[in-house]
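Input sequence (961 aa), recorded before submission:
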Amino acid sequence: MRRLQPLLFIPLLFPCSSLLAQGAPLKLDPDSVKIMNAELVLRNKSKDVNGYLYNTGNGATVFQQLGKSIQFKTGAAGYPAAGDSVYQNASLVNHTIKVMRNGLLQYRDGTNGVIVDASAGRITFRPALQANDIIFIEAIYGLDLSVNGATDGGGGTPSASTLRLLPGATDNGNNTFTLRWATNAKTLFLSPKVVGLGSSTLAGTGLSAPNRLGDKISTWLTNNTSAHAWTNLAVPGYSTKDILPLEDGGVSGQNIETAVQLRPDMLFVSLPSNDPSSGMTVAQSMQNLRKVDSIAQHNGITAFFETTQPRTNYNSAQQQMLKQLADSIRSAWPDRYVEGFNDLVDPSTIASILPAYNNGDGIHLTAAGNQFIADRLFDRWLGYFQSITGVKKYHIDSSVNQTTWAPFAQQADANVVKSVYNRYNTAKVYFRVRAEMKNGTFTPWSPVATLSEPDPLPGVNDYTYRLLTDLGGDGITTLNGSNQPDGRPSPSPDGWGKFWNNWFGVGGVEGFAANASFPDMRTTTNEITNMSLQFIGSPTGSFGTSQTKAINYNGFTVPVGDYPQQAVYDNVFIHSSLNPNGIVLRIKGMVPTNKYYIKIWGARLDDNTAQRTLQARIGNEGWETAQSVETKYPTAGTPNYQQAIKFNGVTGVDSVDITMRVGGTGTFAHVSLVDIGVVGPLPAVPQIRLRDTTTTLSTLQLTGTPINGAVVTTYSWEQLSGPGTATIANATSATANISALTNGTYVFRVTGTGGGKTYKGTSTVNVFPNNGGLKTLRIHFSKTAVQPIPGWLNVYGSPHSQRITITDPATSWTIDNLSPTPEFWAPFASNSASDIDGTTTGNNTGVIPDIALKGYWFNYSLKWATGMDNLILTGLNPSKTYKLKFYASRNNSAAAPRYGAWRINGGAEILMNAFNNTTLEEVRTGISPDANGKINLSVHAPSLTTNGAFGYLNALVIQEE
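Predicted structure, C-alpha cell format:
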C-alpha cells in the first residue's frame, strides 16, 4: 500500500469576493511552535495566513500559503458588466492565475478562453462576459517560513548560503540564447515546457487513455498550470543507454539530445526496469543517468528521475539490481527523485509487483499503479518549484576563457530566473551567476554554464525538402483599394523550377478573413504532404471594412533571392488592434523527429516614417523572447532576403503555433511568404499522383495514379482554371482525354474515392505556342508583372519614366525602350502602360492569349520623326531575316478611334485599328537587322489625327525565318 505523506491543513475561509494575501516571509519565535494534544500549533504571524504543512519528501516540511481567491457575478458592484472582456486587479500581479467560468476551467486561448497577463494582474475573457456569468479566480502564491530569521532547511527564506543557482545556456538558433540560472514557482505554473524520456511505463504499454502515465501528466498540467507544453518521447523497451547522446549509443529522436532541442523547463526520466535485462550493472546505469542529468543541467533544464519499479518476471539477482538502483537514484537526487518502487513492491519479495497493481504480465502496472507514480511526480514538482524570496538582484558575468570575467547583465526581479539575450559572437561563451541578497550578503558564484558554438544552419540546398507559401491575392477575385482585382500568385514552377503553395485566404473576394487555412501543402518538388497552415483569428483585428480582408499590394516587383517577384508583390497585413496578444499562425502535420527551419518574410513599400515592425514568438514562449523584423522598405529600396523572422531547428513536435503581432510604435506589419526547410524524411502520404506537363498540342491525356497505399474505385475530373474552357472526355475514369487547349496555363483536378476516403490530385498544364521549330520571341507588354503565359516574355513597366531592358533567356535577344532619355515616350495622365484595358475574349480564342490582349504600352500625342525610334531589338543574327507580328487592343472604356501605329527601321507607318480588337494582326516578313544585329522599331501616335492621339502596342512576335 502507498505510504501517505503527512499533511496538516490549517482551517481557512474564502469569502467569495475577498482577497487573502501575505507577501512577506513569516517570522516564528521558537516558543510559538508547539505540540498540543498531538497537533502541531503555529502561533504569532501565521495565525491569519491560510495554508498547510507539506512534506516535500526530502526530509523537509514546508508551510505553503493557499493563495488568493476572487468570485463574482457579471454586473456585481465593482466587477465587469455583461459585454466587458477585461478584469484587472493589482493583487493578482505576479501570481499564477487559474480561472473558472460557470464551473468550467478556462484555457489560455485568444478566441475561446482567457488571456492572462500575470505581470499586470489582467485577465481578458474570450468571448466577452455574458449576463449572469459566474467567475472564480484563484491565484497561487508560495509562502516561506523562517525561525528567528534563520534558514530552516526546507523552503524557508533563502540566504546567501542556501540559494540554489545552477545555470545553463541554450542557443536558440536565431542569434539569441536562453540563460536560466534557477527555478521558482513560475517555472512550474506559467507556461511550463515538459519533456518525458523513458520506456513502456511512460509510453503507456498495456493501457489506453486516460489511464496511461503520459495522459495523467498531461491532464495534471492542463488543470494546474497555464499554457503548458508536454512532449512524451518514451519508447517501450528502452534502457538508460537508449536515451544517451547519439555518439554514446542513444537513439536520435527519442534521446536527451532531442529533449534538449525542445528547450524544456523540466525533464522527467522514467526507465523503471529494463537495465538488468540489458546486461548493465547498477554502476553503468547510474553513469548513464548522471550523464543525462549533466547534459540537462548544462542547458538549464531540471531533470527528475523515477526510481526503478518492481518487476515480477525477473529472477532474484535482477530484482536485487532493481532495488539497488532505486536506492542509488534516491541517494543521487534526494530532491529530484520520483518514487516508483516502495509504493508498488510486494513486501514479501525482493522486487515483485504487488498483485493488485500487476497488469498481468509481471512487468507493467495497472492504471492505479500508474497513479501512484503520477502523484509522486506531482508532489515532487510542487515541493521543488518554490517562490524565491530574499534576493535583491542577480549578477551575471561572462567570459570567453573562464579566466577573465566581465559583467554581462543584471536582473533586478528575484522571480525572473530565465531570460533571452542577443548573441554577440559565434564563439563559445561562459557564464556565471550570483545573487545579491536583501540582507547585503552575496551567494557564491554559481557553477559555470557554457554556451556552445551555434550549430551551422543548413542552406536551402541542404534541406531534405522545402515548402514555400505565397500569401496574397489571386488576381481574379481579391480586390485592391480601388476595388479592382489584384494579386500575383507565384508561378508554379517558378523560374528556378520550384513549386509554390499560393494561399489566398479563405477563398473568393474575402481574402484573409478569420481562420483562413491552407491544407495539404506541397514541397518545392511538388510532393504532397500532410502539413497545413492556419491563422487562428483575423489578421486585421477590428480594422477595416474592405471586401477583401488583410491583403496589401504594395510590395516589390523584382525577385528577392530565389523568391520570384510575384511572391513579394502582395502580402498579408496584421493590424495593431490585435495587440497585445497578436494572431496565431499554426503549422500542423510536422514529423517530431525531423528538424524544421521556419522563415517568415514580409515587405511593404512605404516612404512614411511610421514603423511596420513584425514581432513573433514561438510556442508558449513569452513576448520577452520574441523576434522583431522591420517589414517596411522605402519605395526605392532594395529587398533583403535575410531580413526575416527565423525559427531554426524546431523539432520534437507535430505542430507549432507562431504568434505574430505589430511591434514597435507602428500600426501595421506584413507577411509576404512562409519558407519552411525540413531536414528529415518526407512521410509517404496516400494520394493520387497527377504530374504537371507541357505541350504544344491542343489535346493530351492525363492519368491519375494511386500511390502510397491509396485505394481508388471512382474518379471525377474537372478543370479548375485556364485561359479557356477545355473539353474533358472519360471524366469518370483514371485517364481523361482533354482537348480544345489553347496557349496558356490550365489546372485540372481529379478526385478519387475508395475505402471511405477521398483523394485529390492536381495537374498544371502549360500549353506553349507551336513555333514550328523556328527560333521565336513572343513579348507581351504591361504596366506591372502579370500572370505568366507559357512561351511568352512579359515586359512590364512605364516606358516614359524608366529604362526597361530585358533579355529573353531562351533566345538571348534583348528588347530596350531607350527611355527616359531621349524622351520618345509621352504619357497621358502620368501613365504610359496598363494591365487591364485591352479587350479580351474570355476564353482565349483571340489572335493572342487574353492575358496578352489585356495589357499594353502606349505613346500619347507624340508623332514619329526621323531618329525617334523608341523600341530596339538587339542580339539578332545579321545573316538572318525575321518575321515580325504586331498586336494592339483597347477596350471600349475609351472612345474610338484607337490605333496601333508602328515603324520598322524608319520605314512606312504600320496601322491597326485597336478598338475592341481581338482578331487582327499585322505581319511583316524579310526584315533584316543591321550589321550589329539590331532592328529599330517605333511606337508613336498615328501620323493622321483622324486615327486618334494614342498609339498602342500589346504584343510583338519576332521569329527567325
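Checked by second reader. The radius of gyration is 36 Å.
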